[in-house]
């Protein structure tokens, strides 16, 4: 009886994983085929095969880059959400809790305020640096408690640093018009207008972060049993916290640097993945990443279709849909159990 039940669970999980693969393929095709510029599917296929037949450079100049960026950003945020919730033991934790998004946003605003930059490549570089510096600051503050086995100091330090950085951002954007313009474009979160120039460095950072998240999977499985039992199983908790923080920082920094601060994916994707594949983090990490990529690309397509020529940024679409998902997570306690 137990064996047949276990087999049934495995079949369900395999089918769910295959369904995620099919859903990902569907949103990729939709991202390439749909947009504010009406192009027939035949023209899209022809442009993909022969870039010289690309009408107005729409396919290779816009849709292919934003599809690739959407895959990377969504996957990184989904994985970062799993690690964040596993490290803090908080089912409502979001990767931005460690001040990554706030640090990136402040760096972009400071760049406009001090340097007067207006290029995407400069924003990418500054966002990456700001995100990394903010996370290092959070970790440094948390180490003052001398108890990194406890996730509470990290969460408190992240909240405090985020509040401080957001206050500085508010001061800058309210006192300088160029800073306000740079922040207005940055903070909404969008895949539009992002080329592939910044993809190689962001991809390198993301690859390191994803590798660290996979390394951290065993520790996350142990932490779900409680810190005392995890220590009894041989886990070095300060090392597990450090690796987890590095994974969150690098994956979120690369995502924020490419698309701006995008919320709710890191919060909701892990819950959906947990309901599909269970709580084993070796399965949960890739599943949540896939769900994050599917969600981000799907919302980006929705924003293009409903916005007409003036498309709705994906950050706005996610804010609306994510708010509904957040309420559902809070109300359904069975999804909140880690």
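^ Assign residues to that structure.
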């Amino acid at each position: 009886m137990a064996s047949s039940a276990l087999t049934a669970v495995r079949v369900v999980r395999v089918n769910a994983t295959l369904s995620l693969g099919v859903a990902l393929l569907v949103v990729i095709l939709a991202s390439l085929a749909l947009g504010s510029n009406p192009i027939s599917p035949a023209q899209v296929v022809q442009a993909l095969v022969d870039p010289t037949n690309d009408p107005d450079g729409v396919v290779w100049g816009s849709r292919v880059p934003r599809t690739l960026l959407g895959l990377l950003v969504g996957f990184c945020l989904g994985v970062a959400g799993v690690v964040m919730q596993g490290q803090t033991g908080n089912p409502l934790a979001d990767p931005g809790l460690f001040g990554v998004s706030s640090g990136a946003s402040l760096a972009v605003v400071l760049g406009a305020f001090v340097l007067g930059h207006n290029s995407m490549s400069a924003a990418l570089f500054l966002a990456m640096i700001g995100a990394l510096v903010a996370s290092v600051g959070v970790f440094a503050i948390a180490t003052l408690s001398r108890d990194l086995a406890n996730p509470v100091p990290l969460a408190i330090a992240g909240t405090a640093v985020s509040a401080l950085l957001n206050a500085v951002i508010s001061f800058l954007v309210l006192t300088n018009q160029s800073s306000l313009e740079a922040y207005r474009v940055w903070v909404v979160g969008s895949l539009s207008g992002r080329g592939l120039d910044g993809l190689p460095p962001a991809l390198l950072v993301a690859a390191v972060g994803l590798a660290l998240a996979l390394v951290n999977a065993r520790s996350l499985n142990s932490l779900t049993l409680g810190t005392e039992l995890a220590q009894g199983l041989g886990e070095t908790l300060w090392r597990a916290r450090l690796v987890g923080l590095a994974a969150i920082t690098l994956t979120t920094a690369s995502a924020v640097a490419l698309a701006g601060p995008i919320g709710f994916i890191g919060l909701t994707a892990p819950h959906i993945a947990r309901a599909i594949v269970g709580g084993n983090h070796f399965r949960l990490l890739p599943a949540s990443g896939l769900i994050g990529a599917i969600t981000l690309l799907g919302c980006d397509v929705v924003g293009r279709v409903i916005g007409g020529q003036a498309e709705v940024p994906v950050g706005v679409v996610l804010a609306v849909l994510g708010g509904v998902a957040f309420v559902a997570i809070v109300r359904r306690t069975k999804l909140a159990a880690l």
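The CA atoms of residues 113 and 256 lie 20 Å apart.
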